[in-house]
Amino acid sequence: MADITLTQDDDDELARLASTGASNPGALADYEIGRELGSGSFATCWAARHKRTGQEVAIKVIEVRPGQGMQQMAEIEHMVKVGRHPSILEVRDARMEGAHIYLVSPLCVGSLEDRVEQPFRPEDWLEWFVQAAEGLSLLHRCQIVHCDVKPANLLLDRHDHLLLADLGQARPLSDTRQRMGSYFYMPPEQAAGGPPQVSWDIYALAASFYCALTGYAPRSRSFALEGEDHPARLACYNRELPLAPLLQTPQIPKDHWPILRQMLELDPRRRPASMEAVVQALRKLGPGASKLPRGRMLATVGLCLSAALGIQLLRGGLLGELALWASLSLGVVGRLMLICGLGGALAGAAWQGWEFQRNR
Residue 15: how many CB atoms within 10 A of its CB? Predict the structure, then answer.
């Protein structure tokens, strides 16, 4: 839940809130407020601890739009209801008091933004990519577009599971209002205005993982945003983005490049038709049922088959005959080889199974 803050006028109130935890006793009396986690245009996020249970949480404080509090709260409650998915950050409590809305969620340890340029395994990268795509696919099936997918909004919990966060910009597909995203993550059709489209999230998701792998957003090194205010920078973005080349870099696995490139097409008609299509394409690169490389998977299968054979020998009473044959034919060495072979097969299969579960 990064990149979300209150307006400047509320800084004094939030500083007092963080230091005393008593500025709004109805909403936050049960929590000790800690450090600020992130900020944006209309909300801020704080780390907090529940006084009774000691549970660490993140509390997002959203500024209520004048005269729109009930509508704003209804929109948030709807997003919380439809956004129930293992890859979407859970909102455990949502309430409105005074001029603010408070959202309580589990505290995550970081975000994809924190992992930019850090070494990680291709399997991890692909797993996070699939998790984010699955969460977005659920939103799209509910006719909702996130509108602001970026590395800072892709959080990681203590188990390194990716969670899609910050649905504050999310809008239904039926909404006709323009929604801006973040520069170099929003596609040109979003920057140009118009109602929300699924294609926005497809582009932004690919841009986020491109940045995680390379250290910079796609097309961001081809031009710099110019202008002293938002309209001027937006005009520069709309003018320069279509002219900027999309670069393939050594950090991007070759077999992953085709889907990334397709998702980052400037023409939305050339991108995948849906986020579910993205999920299916990613799963073909590395089946979710197995994160083991092919060679190790074959070894695991072989070990499991050997273990199964050993069990059948035990059940059929043939192990004694086999041991007798080994003793007569090969002596002590034969018996040792038999015992070590079966024991190694069983131990190897158990170890591979444990490692697979650990890496899930």
Answer: 12
Q: Is the pLDDT of residue 227 over 70?
A: yes
Residue whose entry in the numeric block shows the structure tokens 């659920």: 138
Boundary of a domain, candidates 43, 76, 106: 106
pLDDT in tens, 334-352: 554 545 555 555 555 554 4
CA 288, CA 259: separation in Å to the nearest integer?
A: 17
| Angstrom distance (rounded) from CA 241 to CA 154 | 24
- Does 3 reside within a domain? no
* pTM for the model: 0.73
Q: Are residues 299 and 243 in the same domain?
A: no
For 159, other C-beta atoms within 10 Å of its C-beta total 7
Q: What is the DSSP string of 335-357?
A: HHHHHHHHHHHHHHHHHHHHHHH
Name the residue range of residue 98's domain: 8-106
Give the residue carrying structure tokens 């323009």. Answer: 178
Residues 63 and 90 in one domain: yes
Q: Would you call 148 a catalytic residue per the annotation?
A: yes
Check 148, 157, 175, 229 and give the catalytic one: 148
Same domain? 242 vs 175: yes
